[in-house]
Amino acid sequence: MRGLQHDEDGALDELIVRKSPGLVGVAGRMLGDREEAKDIVQITFVRVWEHRHEFRDRWSPNTWIYRIATNLTIDHLRARQRRERAMVVAGSSLRAVDSERKSLAELQQREIGEILLKLIGCLSNRQRVVFVLRAIEGLETKEVAAIVGCRGSTVRNHLFVARRKLRRELEACYPEYFPGPPVDPMGEDR
């Protein structure tokens, strides 16, 4: 970041090479679209460049960059939701899967990923960011709190609520994954 602030040749390129894979992963999971995620990451680095002189040494570069990326992703999600509300969705198209070319394990992994991406839509934007960063990306609670701009206890609360919502959505939409009577994650009988 110091090199970037001093306009050193290659500093931005090095930052892009080092941080892009993780940022694309986070944004991709939040958006459910890897190509959109790549666009968000490009915009992230434009913002990093534009605001490089505002960065302070007391901040973690990783947290600062991830915060820019997650805020851009949330803005993109909000814009997408506005567009979706404005349009009448006439149906959904299913992707054809060539079962001869895909192994059963790949198909199952893809199915699980698609289910998770569908279910993540039930979460608020803040819960979605926390869930992706903490549960999927494996970032520490402290780092997620810094990225999101809240306390660690708030991160844990968002994560708890997100997991509970996801479990209820999974149980409602895919009951075949839950043999026997429905179970309340809070331990109460229904």
Secondary-structure blueprint:
Blueprint (H helix, E strand, L loop, with lengths): L1 H4 L5 H21 L2 H17 L10 H26 L17 H17 L4 H12 L4 H8 L3 H22 L17
- Secondary-structure element string: HHHHHHHH
What name does the CATH topology of the largest domain carry? Arc Repressor Mutant, subunit A
Helix content: 55-70%
Give the terminus-to-terminus CA distance. 54 Å
CATH H-level superfamily of the largest domain: Winged helix-like DNA-binding domain superfamily/Winged helix DNA-binding domain
Strand content: under 5%
Query: What is the total number of structural domains?
Result: 2
Based on secondary structure, the structural category is: mainly alpha
Q: CATH first level of the largest domain: which class?
A: Mainly Alpha
Unreliable stretches, pLDDT < 50, 5 or more residues?
Answer: 88-101
Q: How many separate helices?
A: 8
Gyration radius, rounded: 19 Å
Mean of all residue-level pLDDT scores: 80
**Overall body shape:** elongated
Level-2 CATH architecture of the largest domain = Orthogonal Bundle
Quick structural summary:
67% of the residues lie in helices and 0% in strands. The protein has 190 residues and is mostly helical.
